[in-house]
Every structure is written in structure tokens, then in C-alpha cells.
Amino acid sequence: MANLRFQVVGEAFKKKAVAVEAPKGLTSEYFGKYVFGREQMAKYLSKETVKVIRDVIDNGATLDRDIANHVAAGMKQWAMDLGATHYTHWFQPLTDGTAEKHDSFIEYAGAPGEGVIEEFSGKLLVQQEPDASSFPSGGLRNTFEARGYSAWDPSSPAFIVDDTLCIPTVFISYTGESLDYKAPLLKALNAVDKAAVSVCQYFDKNVKKVYSYLGWEQEYFLVDEGLYATRPDLLLTGRTLVGHESAKNQQLEDHYFGAIPERVQAFMKEIEFEAYKYGIPCKTRHNEVAPNQFELAPIFGETNLASDQNLLIMSIMKRVARKHGFRVLLHEKPFAGINGSGKHNNWSLGTNTGVGLFTPGKTASENLQFVTFIVNTLMAVYKNNALLKASIMTASNAHRLGANEAPPAIISIFLGSQLSAILDKIEKNSGDEALKVDGKRKVSLGIAKLPEVLLDNTDRNRTSPFAFTGNRFEFRAVGSSANCGSAMIALNTAVAAQLKEFKTAVDAKIAKGMGKEEAIFSVLKAYIKECKAIRFDGNGYSDEWKKEAKKRGLDCETSVPKIYDAYTTKASIKMFEDCKVFTAKELEARNEVKWEIYTKKIQIEARVLGDLVLNHIIPVATRYQSMLLDNVFKISQVYGAAKAKKLAAHDNSTIEDLSEHISAVKGFVEQMVEARKVANKIKDEKKKALAYQETVLPFFDQIRYHADKLEMIVDDEMWTLPKYRELLFIR
Ligand code: ADP
Ligand code: MG
Description:
Layout: H1 2-14, H2 27-30, H3 38-44, H4 47-59, H5 65-81, E1 86-90, E2 103-104, E3 106-108, E4 116-118, H6 122-126, E5 127-128, H7 140-143, E6 148-152, E7 159-161, E8 164-173, H8 182-200, E9 210-224, H9 225-229, H10 232-237, H11 262-277, E10 282-287, E11 293-298, E12 301-302, H12 303-323, E13 326-329, E14 343-351, H13 364-383, H14 385-392, E15 413-414, H15 417-428, E16 436-437, E17 443-444, E18 466-468, E19 473-475, H16 484-511, H17 516-530, H18 543-552, H19 560-563, H20 570-578, H21 584-647, H22 649-680, H23 685-696, H24 698-713, H25 724-729
Parallel strand pairs: 1-8, 15-18
Antiparallel strand pairs: 1-2, 3-4, 5-6, 6-8, 7-8, 9-11, 9-12, 9-13, 9-14, 10-11, 14-19, 16-17, 18-19
Helix pairs in contact: 8-16, 11-12, 13-16, 13-17, 14-16, 15-17, 16-17, 21-22, 21-23, 21-24, 22-23, 22-24
Magnesium ion binds next to strand 11.
């Protein structure tokens, strides 16, 4: 078996970059070729149908059966012209990732057996009933109605993967509860649109729609597939459960932005070609901080579509990686001791008139609007800091957050010194008095005259989980494997609810006779005071911050199962219900799912860890020990017992060390198994998840400590599991 390790290492070293053929023409010429977008619609649908469908997409108009039939016919023709033979409703169940069940277009032309034709009706486009019983539902389907259905989301265009037309859909139970990430995301986007438009109306009557934008940055690791296949932990859990740190890892900081290795470069190229075909505007690629860690980021887009594109690219990455002899690791913490992977969610709001609501403006009115949206976002994050943390917390992301790396498990906002100064000034001044902003220009910042705010974006803070970066906020706590939907639902809903509250407060003041701008100013001023606790520009990793954050009343909970309670507090339920995003019942059901997934993840890891120790590590350690014993025995045979004492001293102490670690590691595995048995009997999902967290998980580190010691003692030639240096430095 150790031979297998050396064999895969040897093979990995020999691998050359796979040649990648560029699609014909300029990127702009084949961009979106496999997406049923505007251009394709114009070609395959009648003018009338296009008009209706655009109205559905842009204004949420309802779609009648006739139009659906027309769209389906055009879509089918387009798909068949590109070689598609099947179709699927593509949806996003509460497991991360997507689900699909392919059906062929064929139907009997007449009576059974009399030949087939290709068919795809509006009915099939609009709605399907996948067998929903095998997807997590937190008891929603059991309690209410067994079936669920998927329904077309016309706002995200259909696309073709291989031979299959994929139709983005929401996934809901028959009684209407959402069983996925897309349905509530669409509702949250609708809520933030409505709320933001009504606030924008204070400043510009032409604003009719506010879009939520998302630009994700996907971090990932690449591991040679031979090495991957010889690590049961990577194969089954996506992360290494044992493995001694490599002597060199990221301490020299020589990987970040370094030259991209050739095999990786080929992989990235192909990912981009694929992404472009699907209309995903990949823009940036680079090495990340940890060895074999990389990043990919497209240009931002409308949140629903960007989120779909992220899911699509994650599956493209997995597929393409195989072609290049790699496996892609999307896990948040595949390797101990080096950086984990996140998926920064750059988020902003923008109007149909083309104004970015977090972009400092040119006119006074634009800047009052800018400050309004900034301050309301601060308030939303302040009030919902626990909820936002819950939206990104998972068993795997927990290894990143709160551990010694970005970002901490306390949600705070970094604004930078300039924006902070502006808010401080607004807070301290009565409003009508002229304010000065220091910096490149001296400009007055008065109630009706906010200056041209000049923000340079050099002021950066890498430790903040939620940072203002010039024209957007960057929610950095999102995990690399996550569906962006979860974070985006929480954030957009929180901001929607906050904007509604703001509007009510301002209107009340106006009703009492206060001028509009003064009313806005006075509400903002109060908000700036109220939400101060959320602003933190210091080092988020420090221990002082943990103490300080607690004093400020920010949520400091780090237990994953407990954090999910933030979804079902009175305030959260009210907020989600008011914004029509979730009902209380849905929130409770979704928490059940989260606890269940948490338990299962830890359970699987615990099993794999047990297997690694008992069947991979201990047998090797014992064999090595027996070799040493053999040697000691031979020494004493040749030199006699007295002399052997000295000559075999080193062997003897190694033998004892081995025994010590073997029995420790074995003992802990046995205790872990016992803890699991106890936890498994618990019926309540939350209590069970807690039991896994509190009584099973702690053994992981203890087991790992001794397993990694054994790795350092045992003859390298005998060790079967590829080591960290091999996993991280061979590419
Ligand atoms: P960083 O310097 O933070 O690593 P990247 O260039 O990797 O930045 O990614 C930044 C992401 O933010 C990109 O997806 C980019 O398109 C996106 N972005 C830029 N402006 C906005 C905006 N106004 N709203 C949302 N996303 C934005
Ligand atoms: Mg980046």
C-alpha cells in the first residue's frame, strides 16, 4: 500500500499540462452561446412572446399557458440545434449544490410503439414534480404534504450542459413552503427592491427598480487526483482529518499572486472558456495565500443570476478538474495549519437609473442617498449580526471562522477612516451647520449639501467579516462551498426590513412638518449613534476584540448548532414574515435541516477518522514497531544484553513512543465511538447536533495529535497516506 503512495506521487510528478483548445473567435463572440438569453430569444421566439417574457422577467408579470408553450417550443428548438436531447429542472435543495433529473424530449408520435417525436410543452417548462422525498425538508413534507414541485424561474436563463437543457427552478412543497435556496432568495430580492425603491423616491422619482448585485470570489484548492484518491478523508469528507503540517507551507508568503503553475493555468483557462459559453463573465484568476490554493472571480451581476452562476461554476470546476488530473476542493478547510477557503460575497444595490447606492455621488442629493443606504446597511447588520453569522455557519465553515484566520466569528463592519469620519461628523453636528471633510478637498458637508465624497479604496482591512470597499460591501465570512443564496437571503431581507423601518420613521417626521432632508438627517443621526457597536476597523483576530465585542453586545456565539437559533428569535421571525421571505414554520423546518446536516457531516467525519486510525495508521505503526523490536532482538543476540542496552537505546525509546501514541489514539477512537452511540439515540435534531459538537467533535483534535505524532515517527517509506507536502506542493 505504501507503494501506492509512491506510485501516485511519481505519476503526479510526471503529469504535464493538458492542452486546452480555445473556442473559435473572440470571447465576446461565443460568450453566452449555451444560454437562452436575450439574443437567443430574439432568434427563436416571436416578437410578441419576447415582449411578454421580458415583462415577466423585468416586472414580475404572470405568464400564461399560451406564452409558456411558445417559449418552450423556441427553447426546445434552440436546445436541439445545439445538440440537446434531454431537459431537466435544475434546482437548489438545502444540501449545498444543485439537483437535476434528466428526461429525454421524446414522446410517442401516436399510439405506443409507433415511433417517437421530440416534444417539450409549456407545462413541462413551467412545472415538474421531482420525487422530492429524498431531499432534506426538515419535516415539512412529512407534516403537510408529501409531494414537492419545481417551478421555472424565468429571471435566470436556461442553459445547456452537454446534452441537457437545464431550466433553473424553485423547489417548493405542495403547500407552498420553500425547500430550496432560490425561492426565498427571489422573495428577499423582491423585498429589498420594493423597500429600496421607496427610499430612493426621496431622492429621485425616476427610480422604479433597485437591483441587488453580487460579485462572488471563489477560492479553492487543487489536489492531484492520484493523491486525492489515496486519501479516504479527502475522498469522503473533502478535507484532511489527519496529516502533520509540512515543514514549509505558507510561511514564506511566496504563493499569493505568484506565477500560476502550468497544469493549473491550463485548468483555469478551460474553466474560463466553459464559463464564457455559459455567460459567466470570469474576470480574475490568481494564486491564493496557501500552497495549491487559487481564486476565481467574475464581474458582478444581478444577485439571483450571479448565485446561479456560482453554483454552475462549482460544478464546471469539478468536471474540468478531472480532465486535468486534479480534484478541486471546495471545502472551507481542507488542510489544518494553513488558510482555508472562502467565497467573498461583494454586494451592492443599484437603481434602474444606473446609480450605485453605495457609490459616493457627485451631487449633494446623491450623497445624502449614499449615506442613507450606508447607514441603513450598518443598522441592518447591527440588528442582525447573529442572523448573518447563522446564514454562513456550517460544520465546514466553522473551521475557518473563529479559528485563527479570516474572518472572526463575530460580525462587525469595517468602513475605513474616511467614511467613518463622515459618519462621525454627521453624528456630532446638528446638520445645518457646515461640515468639513479633511482630505484631498475641503468640502462642506451640510444637510442639504453633502459633498462629493472622495473615497480612496487603499484603506483595507483583511480581517473584517463585512467590509466597505469603495462602492460595495464585501461579506467575507461566506464559505467556499456554500450556496451564496443563504447569505444573500439574510442580508437582503435584513436591509429590506431596515429600509422599511427607516421610511416609516422619516415619513412620521415629515408628517409632523419637518422638511424631508432634515427628517432624513435626523433619523440617520440617531441610527449612527445606535449602531456604533457594529463598526470596528481594528484587528478582528485579536483577543482584545473578542472581549470588546462582547462588551458591545455583539453576538459571540461560536457553537454552530446554537447559532441557528438566530433564525427563530421573535425579531427574526417578524422580519422574515413582514418581508414575506419565510414563514415561522419554514424557518423552523430549515433549522431542523441544518442541524441534521451538521450532525451527519460530523458523523461521517468521525467514521472516516476511525477508519483512518484503525485501518491505515495503527497497522503501519505496529509494523514499524515490530521492525524495531526485531532489530533490538538481533542486537542483543549479536552483542549480548549488556551492550545492547546502549546500542538499542534509540530503538527502545522509539518503541515506547510508538506504544504510547498507538494506545492513546486507539483509546480516543474508542471513546469517540461511544460518544457517537450516545448521541445517535437523541431524537431532537438540535440536541443531537449539540451532542455531536460537544461530545464527538472534541476527539478529532486529540486523535489527530497522536496520529500526526505517529506520522513523524514511522518510517516514511511505510506510511501509506500522502503527506501534506505532497498534497500541497505537487501540481
Ligand atoms: P478583491 O480585491 O476584493 O480580491 P476581486 O477583484 O477579486 O476583489 O473581486 C471583486 C468582486 O467584486 C468582483 O466580482 C467584482 O465584479 C465585484 N464588484 C465590483 N463592484 C461591485 C459592486 N458595485 N457590487 C457588487 N460587486 C461588485
Ligand atoms: Mg479577491
